[in-house]
Amino acid sequence: QVQLVESGGGLVQPGGSLRLSCAASGIVFKIFDMGWYRQAPGEQREFVASITNAGKTNYGDSLKGRSTISRDNTGKVVSVQLNSLKPEDTAVYYCRLRGTNWPSDDYWGQGTQVTVSS
Question: Pick from 86, 113, 110, 96: which is nearest to 17 by CA?
Answer without folding.
Answer: 86
